[in-house]
Amino acid sequence: MTAAKQPQPGRKQLLPKLHKVLKSHYKPVVANTGRPMLEQVLFACCLENSQHDAAEKAFSRLLESYFDLNEIRVTTVAELAESLQGLPDPARAALALRRVLQGVFESTYSFSLDHAKKHSIAHGIKTLEHIHGIPPFVVHHVTATALGGHMIPLDLGALSGLYLAGVISREEYDAGKVAGLERLVAKKNVLEFNSLLHQFGADVVTSLHGANVRKILQAVSPESLKERFPKRGEPLSAPNPPPQAAGKESRRAAEAAQTAADEHRPAGPQAAARPAGKTPLPPPGAGPKRAADGTTKPGGKTGPKPFVVKPNVGKPITIKPQLAAPAPEAKPDAAKQLKKPEMGGKPPVAKKPPAAGKSAGDPKHKVKTPEVKRPEAKRPEGKPPAKSQAASGKSHSVQLAKRKPR
């Protein structure tokens, strides 16, 4: 009688066992949370699938090679990959660095993410997820270290290690997501477990058939080692994502095209993506009609001219000198001219002297001496009349201030 096959242990039993075995082979590394938030995100891009020491050296060399983060943003992916030598995939890390910097700059027009940790953990996670092109591992790693969240970051190495140890299934390995994994690890031990699992995953990526990896898998689950471990010299099969819906397929194709465009985008100011609405493009189908071989059809419309952004150069402004306008001549007062003797007016009448018995020095009886105007000399013919007081500069109020005799 054949013995019954024993059921394999579940995830709840394998995960604590894996933690114990990893603790005997590796030492946990304390994450450096003293950096600014954006630098922690950039360091996590270098840390994906690589050892902690190699990521530290590559990130320090990157900051020393360039003047500031904006220069890194406008540098080509190939040049950034040369500065990140020592990582398992420098091109992937360089692309993630550049896309993160471009996404942060387009959203805030600055290089700062400190506002992501001023509110709740959920607000910080949402802020990180809204950055275009940020890898999921970076979001989870920064959430667990800088934001203090209860989360287990999984890159390709960690997923491969969990799959070979029998903790996750093939479907979860292909999807790249493991639901509820952090529930099996206490929050006080999550940082230690994350560091140990990440070091184990980096060894799986760099040396899959090494003695250290086989020893750990043999101690955790010998059955999974026999069933899932590839033969010597063969790599572990890459994750095969499940088929997506029609909308998701088009979205994935658009993301692949955007990734290819980011890899070959040149350096300089033109490296930044132009915001929508700033440079309008012609409508689809507005170009020249072409035949199947690519040549223009004879007699076909050439279509509108391509849109060209011209520099805003204004014409020079010429300012003409303005001449001072002459002051208008004031007309002489008609009533005053009629009172002149030569114009037919009545001469002024002198007042009577004070009565007898009243002294002239009495302050109560002051005699006002009339002002006798001197007759003006007759002007000869052909000469213009003299200017009035208003024209000579005296105002109308000064003329009214002088009291005339009755």
Largest sheet: none
Strand/helix succession: HHHHHHHHHHHHHHHHH
Strand residues, percent = under 5%
N- to C-terminal separation? Answer: 154 Å
Describe the structure.
The protein is mainly α. Among the domains are: 9-30 and 153-242; 34-145, Orthogonal Bundle (Endonuclease III, domain 1). The chain has helices spanning 11-25, 37-47, 52-65, 69-73, 77-83, 90-108, 121-129, 136-145, 156-164, 170-175, 190-206, 211-220, 222-228, 246-263, 334-338, 389-392, 396-401. Helix 2 crosses helix 3 (52-65), helix 2 (37-47) runs antiparallel to helix 6 (90-108) and helix 7 (121-129) runs antiparallel to helix 8 (136-145). The longest helix has 19 residues, at 90-108. It is elongated, with a radius of gyration of 47 Å. It starts with 10 loop residues before the first helix and ends in a 5-residue tail after the last helix.
